[in-house]
Amino acid sequence: MSDKIAADAAVVIVGAGLGGVRLAENLRAGGHAGPVVMIGAEPHPPYDRPPLSKTVLTDASGRVDLKPGEFYADSAIELRTGEHVDALDTASKTITVSRADGSSYQQAYGALVLATGLLPRAFPGTQDVAGVFTLRTFDDAEKLRRAVGAGPNGSAVVIGAGFIGCETAASLHTLGLSVTLVEPAPTPLAQAVGTEIGALVTRQHTERGVTVRAGIGVDEIVTGEGGRRVTGVRLADGELLPAGLVVVGIGSTPVVGFLDGSGVELASREVGGGVACNEVGRTSADGVYALGDVANWRDHGGTQRRAEHWNHTVEQAAIVAAALLGTDHAVVPAVPYFWSDQYDLKIQVLGWPKPDDDVQVVSDDGHKWLAYFSRDGMLTAVAGAGKVGAVMKMRPKLLTPTPIVDVLPG
Ligand SMILES: Cc1cc2nc3c(=O)[nH]c(=O)nc-3n(C[C@H](O)[C@H](O)[C@H](O)COP(=O)(O)OP(=O)(O)OC[C@H]3O[C@@H](n4cnc5c(N)ncnc54)[C@H](O)[C@@H]3O)c2cc1C
Predict the structure, then answer these.
(1) Any idea what the CATH number is for the domain that residue 381 is in?
(2) Does residue 40's CB lie within 6 angstroms of at least one atom of ligand 1?
(3) 18-29 and 310-325 helices cross at what angle (nearest 10)?
(4) How far, in Å, is the centroid of ligand 1 from the Cα of 117?
């Protein structure tokens, strides 16, 4: 089945984030002459999310726009911000869009690309409690930064030590708060990279003065002022951690609600949920594609996977654009990559680490470290902190099957 669209086909993109912008840009760079419409629910022009848990908090450095304002008009990309796509009718190839003023309209498409990202999970019952935050959007980051600036620089608790939780804990510590990072798994990042690397991540937090409480869950977020303001966090063992500020980083869910009733197939929870796609992003509906954090692509081994990483989104946008243009394209990201900045350290992960892989820490000076992951004797991934060159030079070894003994030093 060809994915190639007609030269004058209207491509409509739902979601004006990283994936949407890169797709639009690639379509124009590849010569697509038809309309390109990008609809985004947020009021802002498209911006980059990684700085939100880093410089936007620590340096109040403001929004990092993905493109200069004139880019969209210059590229004939029709950007509609502050508009929400509510429904999709695959039979008539139209979407229903609502505006902030309450009005709505129908938009027809030749090809529709879903790039709607994720919504952070809230801690149940705390949506309206002052001092409790999640972090996904620029507005979330601004609210959190203002709360730090406004209050006495007291105690903060970060619930969940995934990448965003760890980065936020580092940023709040940098801003002078006394921070406790709480994680039910045995270490931070255990689900992503296992407990051995998690222990190195714990060290980088504790040696700077962040308290890491791993292996214990949170029973409740404790409030005062008649339930209006957070005062602390009660752990599963009954201990109360007083806190004027709580950041909840307990994961996110793909934004797919607007697809209810559309018939577009979703991936099962077991494989990560999101919109089920083939290896070029095509969904079960004719002319409908998905990419980025919301998309669950099939890889060339036939496995469905969903990733929540910047590079992955950029690579998928290039693949979908090439498929729509009928040009040659790369396959699903050959070697997955992501990074996380915590304090002065860049943590990088290249490859397919699994929490139960064998891990060999090949260098560790007490601050920077490098580790190789293997399964059944074969190299699966490389991770490092402060080891940019050493991590990236392993990419060729991950492109072909490599016995771990061939890369271990000495
Ligand atoms: C705080 C933070 C820090 C991060 N740091 C890193 C990092 O260090 N390294 C890394 O590799 N990755 C990082 N990431 C992940 C990276 O930013 C994402 O992988 C990337 O933004 C995914 O792009 P996307 O286009 O799929 O989704 P998004 O960038 O989330 O864009 C989706 C857009 O769609 C809009 N939308 C949703 N539903 C609708 C609808 N129905 N109608 C209209 N619009 C809609 C949303 O409002 C949103 O603006 C970070 C993410 C966050 C939140």
Answers:
(1) 3.30.390.30
(2) yes
(3) 40
(4) 5
Are 66 and 40 members of one domain?
yes
* Closest C-alpha residue for ligand 1 atom 3: 50
What's the pLDDT band for 230 if we cut at 50, 70, 90?
Answer: very high
What residue numbers bound the domain in which 201 lies? 123-250
The C-alpha atoms of residue 30 and residue 243 are separated, in whole angstroms, by 52
Residue where a domain stops, chosen among 215, 250, 285: 250
Nearest-angstrom CA–CA distance, 336 and 85: 30
Residue 294 lies in a domain: yes
Sign, CA torsion 125/158/249/271 = negative
Residue 149 has pLDDT above 80, yes or no: no
Q: Is the CB of 258 under 6 A from ligand 1?
A: yes
Whether the CB of 85 sits within 6 Å of ligand 1: yes
Atom of ligand 1 nearest to the CA of 294: 26
In the DSSP assignment, the letter for residue 3 is -
Rounded mean pLDDT of the chain?
Answer: 95
Q: What is the tens place of the pLDDT at every residue in 288-335?
A: 999 999 999 998 778 899 999 999 999 999 999 999 999 977 666 678
